[in-house]
Design goal:
- 27% of the residues lie in helices and 24% in strands.
- It has 432 residues and is an alpha/beta fold.
- It is globular and about 70 Å long.
- Strands 7-6-5-4-3-2-1-8 form an eight-stranded parallel beta sheet. It has a six-stranded antiparallel beta sheet with strand order 9-10-11-16-13-14. The protein has a two-stranded antiparallel sheet with strand order 12-15.
Length: 432
């Protein structure tokens, strides 16, 4: 006999499943966001120019499809009768729907920003307690993506259930529109969203805001570990964020991803090796790949990094399993060496060694470490390796022109040289 408690449990489960499975982000979302370069200086001309550049530069054909307008697009006041919040008429004179139509005509999708607070982080009007009317407005504009922030939340946080309830309201409101809208939560890892956002969102930020610095400590990003962080902050280096992401990859799956924040490739003074390491590690842990650079000033090197098919196919692998960190070992010169591995859909494996230290490092990569969770047959087998940041003399379905033959190795990859602030990454297939 079905008890009342069982019936209620099934009903709640059914409701969660409906909110959870909107059919989107089966692999991590890819696109571009205005904030890291332009902050509040956004308008229609900028957005349409960026969309055109995504198409013309070949980024669209590599999967970058969302054009996300971050903060400061909003009008100063809501309509006093309907509560509707329209776009700033000076910045977007034709309105959001006309701009969305143009972006869709380019084969791209449009994203917008709001906040689960009374104000956004840029002090514009937020969506707290206006979730239904705002969701209906976005759907009427044919928006495809919502980034939903966490500023000015009236203290409705500090306990996971309180944060869950606040963000679930927008999740339900979006689903109620009948339009598929990717829901990208941005609560900075507050209250451990990896434990509850899986039921309501397609992705969730898991740390404070990124800055274009590869490694190092900053008081504005005070937490070294993320699981019990009380102040996520901002000015977080890439290695700081990656360290926080390492233990929570187990919470991600198709449709639901840990978001390590926007890419800094093409911004600031990062070296080529740092840009490559940043892009590689975000891809391996299955973070959304949302570019944040000035598209009108991007270099050929930036495009080359962002369009490496071998790395993109790690991120977009249909199995959807984030790579795991097997060990992190300090080195004498400060920083550390890290060994990562991930399983892929075609029974291949991705292996990476990250060097966060200021000096070049040399090591042997033991297959006993790489395959430590497997049996001795797998650990002892020979593997054909391909170097994913070296060009190949032939094209493959998984790497395009990337993935040079690195030979067959058994037992270990010996004498691996990893420059400072760099990564070595291979795709491994069991040798026949």
């Amino acid at each position: 006999m079905l008890t009342l408690s069982t019936a209620l449990g099934l009903a709640l489960a059914a409701g969660s499943a409906k909110a959870l499975e909107n059919g989107l982000a089966r692999t991590p979302q890819m696109g571009w966001n205005t904030w890291n370069t332009f902050a509040c200086n956004v308008d229609e001309e900028l957005i349409l120019s960026a969309a055109k550049t995504i198409v013309d530069s070949g980024l669209k054909e590599h999967g970058y499809e969302y054009v996300v307008i971050d903060d400061c697009w909003q009008a100063a006041e809501r309509d006093p009768e309907t509560g509707r919040l329209d776009a700033d008429a000076e910045r977007f004179p034709r309105g959001m729907k006309a701009m969305a139509d143009e972006i869709h005509a380019m084969g791209l999708k449009i994203g917008i920003y709001s906040d689960a607070g009374v104000y956004t982080c840029g002090r514009r009007l937020g969506s707290l307690d206006y979730e239904e009317v705002d969701a209906q407005t976005y759907a009427s504009w044919e928006v495809d993506y919502l980034k939903y922030d966490n500023c000015y939340n009236q203290g409705r946080s500090g306990v996971p259930k309180i944060s869950f309830d606040r963000y679930e309201k927008m999740s339900k409101a979006l689903n109620a529109t009948g339009r598929p809208i990717l829901y990208s939560m941005c609560n900075w890892g507050e209250d451990g969203p990896w434990n509850w956002a899986t039921e309501i969102a397609n992705s969730w930020r898991m740390s404070g805001d990124i800055i274009d610095v590869f490694t190092g400590y900053d008081d504005r990003c005070p937490c070294i570990e993320g699981l019990d962080c009380k102040l996520p902050g901002y000015h977080c280096s890439m290695t700081n964020i990656l360290n926080k992401a390492a233990p929570i990859g187990q919470k991600a799956a198709p449709g639901h991803w840990n978001d390590l924040d926007m890419l800094e490739v093409g911004n600031g003074d990062l070296t080529r090796n740092e840009n490559i390491a940043h892009f590689t590690m975000w891809s391996m842990v299955k973070s959304p790949l949302i570019m944040g650079h000035d598209l009108t000033k991007q270099t050929e090197e930036t495009i080359e990094i962002l369009t490496n098919k071998a790395i993109l196919n790690i991120n977009q692998d249909p199995l959807g399993r984030p790579a795991v960190r097997l060990w992190k070992r300090p080195v004498e010169d400060d920083g550390d060496l890290q060994l990562w591995m991930g399983n892929l859909a075609n029974q291949s494996t991705v292996i990476a060694v990250l060097n966060t230290s200021p000096e070049q490092q040399t090591l042997d990569v033991s297959f006993a470490d790489v395959f430590k969770d497997s049996n001795s047959t797998i650990r002892d087998a020979p593997y054909q390796l391909y170097d994913l940041w070296e060009r190949s003399d032939r094209n493959t379905t998984w790497g395009g022109s990337w993935g040079a033959d690195a030979g067959v190795h058994q037992g270990a990859i010996q004498g691996v040289v990893v420059p400072s602030h760099a990564v070595k990454v291979w795709r491994a297939f069991k040798a026949e």
